[in-house]
Amino acid sequence: MRPQLLQFRDEAGTELFDLRDAPRPPEATSALARLLAAFDNLLLSHADRRRVMTAPAQEHLLGIRNGILPNMFLLDGFVAGTWTLELRRGAARLTSEPFGTLTTADRTELTAEAERLLHLAAEGAGQADVVFVTPGSQSIGQQWCLLLTARSE
To answer: What contacts 100, CB < 8 A, 6 or more positions away?
Structure first.
């Protein structure tokens, strides 16, 4: 089968294969924002996660006690933060906590991905919000209290 496949090499020299007629985007094409669930195979199945996770992100996330990984999101193919989904009193809230500052384009793309998930996971919720949290700011519980208080006024 080797003669029918295109052969490539990655940065480490590992041989890679692809179908000759398979669509391949230009090298400069950015990967779309994606929300990954806890224990997603993308993060667990690789001994070397450098292709999807920077060293600081890996140290932060993979050093978590008891090995319980949070939901994570990808920007341009790399883990760039965590997210949670909460359903309370007919309201749904997807909270993203990036590891650093997001560009306007990143925020827009991540919001669109979060809204797609909310549409699926929180169908029928009277209110669905996408919220971005700055690391070290109010806890998610405190934000829920503020959100629900503001809605009841």
So the answer is: 80
Phi, psi (5° rounding) for residue 3? -65, -20
Q: Tell me how far apart the 2 most distant CA atoms of the chain are, in Å.
A: 69
* Token representation of residue 97: 């906590």
* pLDDT of the chain, 153 residues: tens digit per residue: 888 999 999 888 989 999 999 998 898 898 999 999 988 888 777 777 777 888 878 777 766 667 678 899 999 999 999 999 998 888 899 999 998 889 999 999 999 999 999 988 888 788 889 999 987 665 544 444 444 434 433
pTM tops 0.90: no
Residues 146 and 129: beta-carbon distance below 8 Å? no
Residue-wise DSSP of 12-77: T--EEEEETTS----TTPPPPPEEE-TT-HHHHS-S--TTT--HHHHHHHHT-GGG-PPEEEEETT
- Please give the angle made by the CA atoms of 5, 48 and 107, to the nearest 5 degrees: 90
Buried b (16+ CB within 10 A) or exposed e, 112-148: ebbeebbeeebeebeebbbbbbeeeeeeeeebbeebe
